[in-house]
Every structure is written in C-alpha cells, then in structure tokens.
Amino acid sequence: MSEILTMSRSKLTHSLLAALFIISAPCAFAADEDTTSTPSTASTAESAPANVVVVGNPDKSNAQADTPDSAKSQSWYGKAWDTAGKHLSDIWKKGDVELYVPFWSYHLPFAYSPSQRADYTEYPAGGGLGKGWYNESGNWEGIYLMEFRDSHAKPMYMGGYGWIPTWNPINEKSRIGIGATVFMFMRSDINYYAPTPGILPVGTIGYGPVDVQVAYIPGGEGYGNVLFWWAKYSFK
C-alpha cells in the first residue's frame, strides 16, 4: 500500500502542470490571434511619408514577420505553458493553505437500485490539502490533492486545478459560485490506479474561511450520477 501511495502522489503532482496547460491553452491561443492581427513595424515603415526617418531596419522586420508556421506553433505552445506557469505561480505565492474534507458521495436514486445504494460507500473517509486565492477578477482558483474512499471503499486519489467565479449575495464574507475543475484521478477499478484525466462542474457556497463545495459526476443507469461533497477551510 505504501508503494501505491508513493507512486500515486508522485504522478498526481506531475499531472498538475498538465492540467493547467490544458486550461491555459485557449487563452494563449486567443492572445496569439490578437498579436497576429496587430500591424507589424514593417508595414508602418512602408506607409511612412518620405520625409519621415524610420528608425530600424525594415528588411529585418520583414524577415522577422515572415516566420514559418512551425515557429508560430512553438510560440503558441510556449505562451500556453507560460500562462499555466503564471497561474500556478500566483496560486502558490499568493494563495492560502486550504484543508479539504470529503464527507458525502450521494448516489442519485434514479440511477441506482436500493440494494446498490446500500452496498456503496456514501461517506468517504479522507482528506486533502491545497492552495487557493481570489484573483483580480474576484474568481477563486486553486490547486489541490485529495485521498478518500471511493464507492467501493477503496482508496482513490485526485489532484487538479479549480476555477470558480463567485458572487457576494449578502456581504463580502458570504459567497456563492459555480465553475469547473480539471484533474487527474486514480482508482482501483480503472486500470488499477492508472492516471486518468477528468473535468467536472463544481458549485460552492461559503462564509468567511469555510466553503461547502460539490461536484456532479455525470453517468447513466448504474454508474456515475453522483454528487460528491467536501468542505474546504482556508487558513488566512
């Protein structure tokens, strides 16, 4: 069991950057498109009046503008990686340490028979740690690692990145929000703890340093359709 724990936590840690890379890629692509649409220095130089001295080498600017598609692709991936690294750095430097306590795996009755629900574990025993903060837009984002019992009472490991836009309906201390989490998880009934990616919708309601959060796991008859609940405490 100790070998499984060591292997699992190591793989989860290495998976966090991959998850952040996936989240950040669309943002980097959009930024790259904006840059592409901006007029180049070379075009400015060509359109300048004859009596204006242009500083710089227009030929050099043209050479830089005519970069091959492979260079643009590398730039796109580089920007995506830089964006992921910035999010991770901001969370790590500015975020608060957060304690996670899973407390309920609710199997929706329409998808399971009474006997199935009786056999499944609905009260996961486990915990986790993370770091999170409210960014300049007022949205919560954080990273986390959790270990708890799955529906079959076997150890399950989960780690990833969460992003939740929040609102303050009553005062600054109260909040509600809905967002998403991108993560890697490992459990015994999926290729015996092979790392598997996932993305789920997440809702939150909180006051002060305490939040109660829930993720919906979609599925069909006899699988999925679970509301996974946990409490989160932020150490300010």
Notes on the protein architecture:
With 236 residues, this protein is α+β, with helices and mostly antiparallel strands. The chain has two domains: 2-91, no CATH class; 96-235, Beta Barrel (Porin), CATH 2.40.160. 35% of the residues lie in helices and 36% in strands. It is built from five helices and nine strands; from the N terminus they run ααααβαββββββββ. It has helices at residues 2-37, 41-47, 58-65, 69-94, 114-119; strands at residues 96-107, 127-134, 140-149, 155-164, 166-167, 174-187, 196-207, 210-217, 226-235. The chain has an eight-stranded antiparallel beta barrel with strand order 1-2-3-4-6-7-8-9. A hairpin with a 5-residue loop joins β3 (140-149) and β4. The chain is globular, with a radius of gyration of 24 Å. Mean pLDDT is 79; it is low at 1-7 and 25-66.
Query: How confident overall, as mean pLDDT?
Result: 79
Question: What is the CATH C level class of the largest domain, in words?
Answer: Mainly Beta
Backbone structural class? alpha+beta
User: How many runs of DSSP E, i.e. beta strands?
Assistant: 9
Q: Which blocks of ≥5 consecutive residues have pLDDT under 50?
A: 1-7, 25-66
- Proportion of helical residues: 25-40%
Q: What's the structural domain tally?
A: 2
Task: Report the CATH topology name of the largest domain.
Answer: Porin
How would you describe the shape? globular
Q: What separation lies between the terminal Cα atoms?
A: 34 Å
H/E topology pattern: HHHHEHEEEEEEEE
Q: Give the CATH architecture of the largest domain.
A: Beta Barrel
Query: Main beta sheet, described?
Result: 8 strands, antiparallel, barrel
In DSSP terms, counting alpha (H) and pi (I) runs of 4 or more, how many helices?
5
Q: Rg, please?
A: 24 Å
- Could you give the order of strands across the largest sheet? 1-2-3-4-6-7-8-9
Q: Beta-strand level of the residues, as a percent range?
A: 35-45%
